[in-house]
Amino acid sequence: MKENQQSVLVESAARFPPPKGVKLSYGTAGFRADASLLESTVFRVGILAALRSLKTGSVTGVMITASHNQVSDNGVKVADPSGGMLTQDWEPFADAIANAPDPSSLLQLIIEFAKKEDISFEGGRPAEVLLGRDTRPSGEALLDAAKQGISSIVGAIGTDMGVVTTPQLHWMVRARNRGMEASESSYFHQLSSSFRCLMDLKPEGIRKNVDDNTLVVDGADGVGGEKLDHFKKMLTGLCIEVRNRGDGMLNEGVGADYVQKEKVAPRGFGPADAGLRCASLDGDADRLVYFSVKLNENDKIELVDGDKILSLFALFIKEQLSILNEGESKKENDSYRAHLGVVQTAYANGASTDYLKEMGLEVVLTPTGVKYLHEKATEFDIGIYFEANGHGTILFSEAFRCRLESTHKTLLSTSEGSAKQKAASRLLAVSQLINQAVGDALSGLLLVEVILQYMGWSICRWNELYHDLPSRQLKVKVVDRTAVVTANAETVAVRPIGIQEAINAEIAKYTQGRCFIRPSGTEDVVRVYAEATTQDAADALASSVAELVDQYLGSGTT
Q1: How far is 246 from 135, CA to CA, in rounded Å?
Q2: Domain residues of the chain, as ranges?
Q3: Which residues pair with 284 in a beta bridge?
Q4: What is the Cα–Cα distance from 133 to 475, expressed in whole angstroms?
Q5: Which of 283, 423, 446, 514 has the greatest count of CB atoms below 10 A from its CB?
Q6: In sequence order, what are the residues at sequence separation of 6 or more whose Cβ sits closer than 8 angstroms to the Cβ of residue 310?
Q7: Is residue 236 exposed (0-12), middle (13-18) or buried (19+ Cβ within 10 Å)?
Q8: Measured between alpha carbons, how far is 437 from 327 in angstroms, rounded to an integer?
Q9: Average pLDDT value for the chain
């Protein structure tokens, strides 16, 4: 690194001293904290994003958001060239530079890391980073800090994409690196055109009901509500009413996180909405849940969570693949037979996992966290993943998509209008509609809506696919959470010795009992999850296992 570059970094860093006594850690959500503590961190993430761009020779992204957190918080995360999350290999470096105490320490870390990663500062393609932020008042100042971080790498370019949803920013990064136009208008055009294609491919004779075309959406008073209110004008065959679109307090009594955890209607919804199909986005529109308001039960709802969204998507895709393969010998259709996989964590309700397996789908579990789900889904031709909180998407491998396009081209020339040709068209349209970079509430919502119309299902019929087992989650304070070591996607505790056998003995007392423990990633607590056929049984199982955790390694507080 030349002296000029070193001096620019040191001078820039001096303008953004880190707050005293604050240590931050980069996780699935990037860095998050009270917005007043983040200027230095966001500046340094700007540097990281520019370095990542130099390393890969591609465009990267920086998104400033705290998703479903309260409005006084904010956060920052990096979008990798694929449009996905920052590679896990770089997370320790993110932690190190965020917590470097002074400019000289920061410079030394960057020099050492650049040498290790063989990052050249001269002669190659200049770094380029796309920036986005949500609607939080603190976003503008933090965006400026990120820009200054990017420009402290000589020659680096930071392009402000404006106020966008998190999935839009990730989509734009992916699009730019694929040679496509990266703009909000191109994002909306791709979603609306693929939605229209799928609507045109609905089977004839599906029962239509005027009410079934109306969807009421809680926008969490965030960026998603604002974008959807604009985007809905581009959609035909679907009537959308958006509430909480920015006229109230962000994430306060609204949003997918609130609805899914509290199981009550968000602000602005009530008994008058009974019978309507409703959906809720989270603050930055990367989570989606559906619900219907119960009649004469105050704010109580029937929740349709991420597990049910996953089930709907999996059934639809499985059906299209079956149509495509119908009547073909194994040898004939091997060229485009898809390996379809469903990816969940141990937190997925057991009833959903059982249902998916009964439908003949391959289900695999990963440790908790979107990064693990996404990575596993890439191993399939078509991989579908969702968490119960409504975060998830569908991934199509490049190899399968190429085979599908070739098959579709052949079918168009030999049997246009046939069931097989239409199935291939639907699958191609789904691959365009769904955001393959990250979970996206807007694209997910459109896919849910078109599948419900394809099936001729109401939200009630959808919700009847299976009935969730009652569950309970507890936290147990411990002296050292690292004393718990898990295996088999966190479903088995291998340390402390003997605790799993004790848990198994408790599980055996309950019909359809299931329970696991896992250490928190951020605090010294162990999390307990339990299921059984009744709420009382789930509560009792969770309590007894929490007591076991306390006996083995607790601090006496559950």
Answers
A1: 9
A2: 1-180, 212-303, 305-327+334-462, 469-551
A3: none
A4: 33
A5: 283
A6: 342, 344, 352, 356, 384, 385, 386, 392
A7: exposed
A8: 34
A9: 94
Q: Which amino acid is at 42?
A: V
pLDDT in tens, 74-99: 999 999 999 999 999 999 999 999 99
Q: Between the CA of residue 115 and those of 84, 99, 126, what are the distances in Å? A: 25, 20, 18
Which residues fall within 8 angstroms of residue 79, CB to CB, at 6 or more apart? 60, 61, 62, 63, 85, 86, 130, 169, 170, 173, 437
CATH number of this structure's domain 212-303:
3.40.120.10
Is the dihedral angle over the CA atoms 54, 57, 59, 62 positive or is it negative? negative
Active centre residues (catalytic):
67
Sheet holding 362-366, edge to edge: 362-366, 340-345, 382-386, 392-396
Distance CA 287, CA 440 (A): 7
Amino acid identity of residue 398, one-letter, is E
Neighbours of 479 (CB within 10 A): 10
Dig out the tokens for 77 from the structure: 């995360």
Are residues 347 and 385 in contact, defined by beta-carbon separation less than 8 angstroms? no
Q: How confident is the model over 186-201, as a mean pLDDT? A: 97
**φ, ψ of residue 281 in degrees (nearest 5):** -95, 160
Q: Which fold has domain 305-327+334-462?
A: Alpha-D-Glucose-1,6-Bisphosphate; Chain A, domain 3 (3.40.120)
Q: What is the mean pLDDT of residues 454-467?
A: 96
What single-letter DSSP state applies at residue 329? -
Instruction: Provide the token pair at 389.
Output: 């909180």
Sheet holding 214-218, edge to edge: 239-243, 214-218, 277-281, 288-293, 301-304
**So what CATH class is 469-551?**
alpha beta
Binding residues, as ranges, are 67, 282, 284, 286, 387-389, 518-522, 527
Q: Classify burial at 407, counting beta carbons within 10 Å of its beta carbon; exposed 0-12, middle 13-18, buried 19 or more.
A: buried
462 Cβ partners below 8 Å, 6+ apart? 290, 304, 308, 312, 452, 455
Percent of the chain at pLDDT above 90? Answer: 90
CATH of domain 1-180: 3.40.120.10
Tokens of 194: 């693929």
Helix (H, G, I), strand (E, B) or coil at 304: strand
Domains 1-180 and 469-551 share a fold: no
| Binding-site annotation, residues for Mg(2+) | 67, 282, 284, 286
Strand pairing partners for 302?
A: 292
Give the Cα separation of 484 and 492 in Å (integer).
10
